[in-house]
């Protein structure tokens, strides 16, 4: 069915709808990864967003049940140049189009994704809508506030996974990617996921040895309860790691500020420099917001920087075993150059446990 993408500024791209074929709206963002569409579609950080893939052929390796970051696609829509309907891969169980349709997700193909990406790069991220045939979206509907994104992806109840005898890690879950949980569990940890609204007191009842602040969708400033929880948790000197939204929340909880980037970072090839060692890693990224360096609180220091635009990619606390990164050490999709950050976290947790056991030294 003929359809079009209409941007908030009136720009129009014609194509063909696929999937659920319903009118949808969202923030239009682009991702430059060459593979990994399943991980992107199911990454809860994409709630409320319509994702443009700059790689021109999408769907060529079909769909499988292993490469997903959550149980269902979370994007509001998928925008591609060419959709492949003849997938070929030994793990494929079906077509991408059918998977999206089953889950009520609309897509559009035949879009000049290069022109669209250049437009977003020049004008900044903006709202868009997919409509069928000659329909036109209502401008008010297009720009009206989108639903609270974290509420739809945070766990609704406390969930404990992994080794029950393992080191206890309490995760403040804003829509955690499955790969992050896997990295913790593979290190023998006992992982408890807490709803985004949980207080520090409730989390501390679990007697965690470490805390992880997860990735998640939306603006971190819209989560005042979580900022308060992180602030309270920091008083306990428990080792803490933050990833993406978790990184932004750590910075806000310490009194810092964040701002919205013009078109965000989404892809699998963002070079990041570790300032303390000079090492450069190629990272997987997916974010709109970034830490405002000029407002960095005194208790924090910048550890990582993006070599494309100089933005802050990592921070650590000057006195406490607390650090966070803006990028995705779990990759999924993308290069695994930074997985060792999970080992750093594990080491911090173990060292702090040893200190507890020998209070006199
Ligand atoms: N992947 C994430 O955690 C994204 C964080 C936040 N929603 C942003 O867009 O910046």
TrEMBL record:
L-glutamine binds at residues 45, 216, 218, 245, 248, 286, 289. The active site is at residues 244, 328, 330. Pathway: Pyrimidine metabolism; UMP biosynthesis via de novo pathway; (S)-dihydroorotate from bicarbonate: step 1/3; Amino-acid biosynthesis; L-arginine biosynthesis; carbamoyl phosphate from bicarbonate: step 1/1. The keyword Phosphoprotein does not apply. Keywords: Amino-acid biosynthesis, Arginine biosynthesis, ATP-binding, Glutamine amidotransferase, Ligase, Nucleotide-binding, Pyrimidine biosynthesis. Gene3D superfamilies: 3.40.50.880, Carbamoyl-phosphate synthase small subunit, N-terminal domain. It catalyses: L-glutamine + H2O = L-glutamate + NH4(+); hydrogencarbonate + L-glutamine + 2 ATP + H2O = carbamoyl phosphate + L-glutamate + 2 ADP + phosphate + 2 H(+). Residues 1-168 are annotated as: CPSase. Pfam families: CPSase_sm_chain (PF00988), GATase (PF00117). GO terms for biological process: 'de novo' pyrimidine nucleobase biosynthetic process; 'de novo' UMP biosynthetic process; glutamine metabolic process; L-arginine biosynthetic process. NCBIfam families: CPSaseIIsmall, PRK12838.1. Belongs to the CarA family. Small subunit of the glutamine-dependent carbamoyl phosphate synthetase (CPSase). CPSase catalyzes the formation of carbamoyl phosphate from the ammonia moiety of glutamine, carbonate, and phosphate donated by ATP, constituting the first step of 2 biosynthetic pathways, one leading to arginine and/or urea and the other to pyrimidine nucleotides. The small subunit (glutamine amidotransferase) binds and cleaves glutamine to supply the large subunit with the substrate ammonia. This is Carbamoyl phosphate synthase small chain. It comes from Anoxynatronum buryatiense. The gene is carA.
